Amino acid sequence: MTTRLGVIGHHGYDGLTAILRLLRQEAPGHGYALRFEDALLAQAGGGEKLSRPDQVDALIALGGDGTLLRAARFLGGARVPVLGVNLGKLGFLTACSHDEFPEAFAAFARGEYVVQERMALDATTVADGGSVGVRLRALNDVVIHKGGFARVLRMRVFVDDELISAFAADGLVIATPTGSTAYSLSASGPIIVPTFDSLIVTPVAPHTLALRPTILPPGAVLRVDVEDAPEEVLVTADGQVGTALGTGQSLIVRRADAPVLLVQFEQTSFFSRLRRKLHWGGLDERDR
After folding, report:
1. What pLDDT does residue 145 have?
2. How many folded domains does the chain comprise?
3. Same domain, 114 and 134
4. For a tag site, which of 32, 131, 143, 203 has the least CB within 10 Å?
5. What percent of the residues of the chain are helix, what percent strand, and what percent coil, each to the nearest 5?
6. How far is the C-alpha of 238 from the C-alpha of 256, rounded, in Å?
7. For residue 33, what pLDDT is reported?
8. Secondary structure (3-state) at 281
9. Active site residue: 14, 38, 57, 65, which one?
10. Could you say which residues of the chain have pLDDT below 70?
11. For position 147, what pLDDT does the model report?
């Protein structure tokens, strides 16, 4: 039986061509039929074009965390496992490095991996009358921030229609556990084990000492109203796509209907990644 394997990649990495060549050589012997996103077709030497999530049974993301986030957004909730291959420096979300890929791909083909379900977010802009505007999906986070104006945003945050806080800040990060080690962490948010479903609400540079990051249950529905806003308030998903939040609009953020399925190999763990890649606690494993 042939398995349809999609490939998404980032052209900014030197190792991309070598991995594409390896995939073209090895995939048929493992029963894979390859499909490449349009931007990769020439570099891959031709092949079938990948344009929709229903064309694949599994997906490989070649690049860094940003490429993996883009791959997850491409799937749009389809239950397709994603194998992230790090061609850059950090690669916190990826399952293996460039050097590890030949062995990792063979293990992947043998089914020697686990799939972690990672919670995703659904964010929608809504007008006063209830009409729905733009809808965004995110694996890491949804962020409200100002445009190019040197002034704060005044926000009111509701959880399940109950006001939890009204405050002024440079922005607001609403993150998944997967995104707790991204922008939310930079804004002094907590680190959450990625399989512990929850929502993390982290103000960015709040103008009060009393306001702290808040962890909410996964079923909570957040509404953010921006008051006395500057001319442009932006909403971004995973730092890659976004929209403007217009006057009189609110942002509704809730758990997405479907998770993202990330491939992991059993020899790696979340805490080993924290120690190795983020030097958690100041202990560098390479110096031990």
Report:
1. 92
2. 2
3. no
4. 131
5. 25, 40, 40
6. 14
7. 96
8. helix
9. 65
10. 148-150, 229-231, 281-288
11. 73
pLDDT at 152: 86
DSSP character for 170?
S
Q: How far apart are CA 256 and CA 169, in angstroms?
A: 26
Write down the pLDDT at residue 230: 58
146 by Cβ neighbours in 10 Å (0-12 / 13-18 / 19+) ranks as buried
- How far, CA to CA in Å, does 4 sit from each of 7, 81, 131, 141? 10, 12, 39, 29
Q: Is 57 designated active site?
A: no
The residue among 113, 276, 173, 255 whose CA lies nearest residue 284 is 276
* Strand pairing report for 48-50 and 32-37: parallel
Q: What is the pLDDT of residue 11?
A: 87
Looking up residue 237, the CATH number of its domain turns out to be 2.60.200.30
- Which CATH number does the domain housing residue 85 bear? 3.40.50.10330
Which residues make beta-bridge pairs with 105?
none
Write out the residue range of the structural domain in which residue 8 sits: 3-118+260-287
The DSSP line for 14-54 is TTHHHHHHHHHHHTGGGTEEEEEEGGGHHHHTS-EEE-SGG
Q: Which long-range contacts (CB under 8 A, 24 or more apart) does 48-57 make?
A: 50/6, 50/7, 50/8, 53/78, 53/80, 54/78, 55/4, 55/6, 56/4, 56/5, 56/6, 56/80, 57/3, 57/4, 57/5
